[in-house]
Amino acid sequence: MTALNYNYTTYDDFTALAIKQPELGRRLVKEYGKEGNWMHNPLTVYQTVRDYAIYEVLEDKYALPFYENEDAISSLVDVNFNEYHLPNLFDYIDYNSLGYALVTNKYFYDFYDRRTGQVATSDEFEF
Fold first, then answer.
1. What pairs with residue 68 in β-bridges?
2. H or E stretch including 87?
3. Tens of pLDDT along 26-73?
4. 37-65: b or e for each residue (b if 16 or more CB lie within 10 Å)?
5. Does pTM surpass 0.85?
């Protein structure tokens, strides 16, 4: 079974992010401006669109139907598909393609940094 891990860093606010990743900080300011709630709230940076997509599948947008039964998604991830003679469902998801589709969907307030391949998210990004 393939382990579904994703790499990310959460920063307390923009200042913390800008200290560690100044180039990304400058691009965020260019995109969202120097003022706004987003600068004072947590920001999460996923290292790749693949990492971002795995997060969305396991923890966020695609996990929403499972929220009423919080053990359901964990159970699905922990299934030993071999025991049931089934291919692992998660091995057949193209996380790179899904990640690119998510970051190009402007319905979601996510920032895709084309230069680094990172994805930054905040509940407070606004256009």
1. none
2. none
3. 999 998 888 888 899 999 999 999 999 999 888 887 776 666 655 655
4. ebbeebbbbbebbbbbbbbbbbeeebbee
5. no
